[in-house]
Amino acid sequence: MSGNEKKAKSFDFMAMFEEARKTAVERNQDKVADLEDQYKATIESKSAGIDADRADNEEEIGPPIPSDLNMRSSEPKQEEDSDDEIGPTPPKADQVEQAEDEVEETLDQKIPMTNEVIMKHGTKTVSALALDVSGARLVTGGYDYDVKLWDFAGMDASLQSFRKCTPCESHAIHSIEYSATGENILVVGGNAQAKVLDRDGFEVMECKKGYQYIVDQASTQGHTAMLNCGCWNPKVKNEFMTCSNDGTVRLWNVDSIKHKHLVKTKTTQGKKTIPTTCSYSKDGKLIAVACQDGSIQMWDYKRYVNVAKTCRNAHMNGTDTSCLTFSYDGQAIATRGGDDTVKLWDLRKLKEPVAVANNLFNKFPMTDCCFSPDDKMVVTGTSLNRGETQGKLVFLERLSLQRVMESNVSDSHVVRCLWHPRLNQLVIGTGNGECKLYYDPEKSHRGAKLCVVKTARKKNDVQFVSHQKIITPYALKMFKEDREMSTKKQVEKARKDPVKSQAPMKPISGSIGVDGRVMAHGSTLSQYVAKQIATRKPDDRDKDPRAAILRHAEEAAKDPYWSGQAYHKTQPVTILQEEEKSDEEDDVPAWKKPKL
Where residue 78 falls among pLDDT bands split at 50, 70, 90? Predict the structure, then answer.
């Protein structure tokens, strides 16, 4: 390296950092001292204030001390000194009495049936009803093919539905259910295609119908017979299940019109049996189906090949089991049979029922049964038997199915019943088209309580202005008013008036014109016929076809161009029949000759 080149300057970073730290400490030394002095002064002032409060007991600051604490402080401290008592202090006597009163509340006292609200669905049986998860809206369906939606927050005391539709056209509604999120409504009717409506009653999708002439139901993409029941999956948002008279249970997704999975219900002999109702378990892990042969069959979710649990003699063979529902704890199911019974089953031992309730007449294939929100009761309705006049709502104790209470709720059949867990309200569907809601002002929440307190809107009365008619029999004709006539007479009078009735002008009869119109030539029938005969054009069909051909005979004989050259030597002599002419036919014109 040459002497003119400069060397790189080296830096000691640690020394620079240490120097910067010392400089910062020297600059902030005064500020740190001031902060320490302020902190000491604050602590001394707080300690002096505490000592002053302790010394002066007469000046109390803040809310008063609870009397309970004063009583505890005044009691002798024997409990603290005793070593025998361990744990929290025992409750007071009044608290024990209050707890005993709460425990002693019987099952019939828990039923919210003190108040009643009646909503008119129609004139025929209410065969389906459902409440959404929040309890804000109710949907009903019936044998009159109508589906009505009710909004408790938007209704007043007049109790009018906000929408009415007929999604299944001329088919009765068999089942309706809200999805787990409350966004969609599943409508199952008497046809082979279930429909999904949105929250406002507009159609979202319609299931595909299968080809009914295919024997193997697995080869079709939808049901081929009437639907019986349908329900939503409680865990999967857009999945639902339907069962049909074609002997299949199909799982669907809202995003597809084709079925997702298919399950065939069979008897012990392997023959087809019709599923009458179906349901998911509360956790969505089981699919339960009740069949027409009286059996209950269950499959594990995602395993549809073999039956997981079954009971072949659950109800009488040949009857329709109208309902199958799971308890809220997921350990039991209740079934409503067409053999006038309600049976309780333990999922751990499905061979025999835990309890049976008899003499519950059932006339409909969709009569409900449901569990109470606390899982201590089972509720179902009864149909009217011969000689009965009151439909009953029966409350049964869960373990033994003993009758807790029977209530006459309608003059007709009690078909549907629903006990909503959040609202703590009962909804009943009857055979006379009424939907009844029962609630307790103290135990129930929202629901019907929102609309009954609102006064019904008054209708705007139409104001009629009466017109008094003055009768003047001796007035001039120009000032007389027409007499009042019925509608029929007014129509007859207007019919006679050619101006009002706009009658067409009559044809002219005779040789003289009328109202400036001159009789035209050919207005009568005879003139028209004569005119048609005179102006008739000759018809080609009137010509003789033989004469039309023979007019070319002379030319063909002179110049046989087309056929004469080929058959000139072998062509035989042509002999044609000569036309016989009669004297009578010569005088007859051509248009009078008969057509051949």
Answer: very low
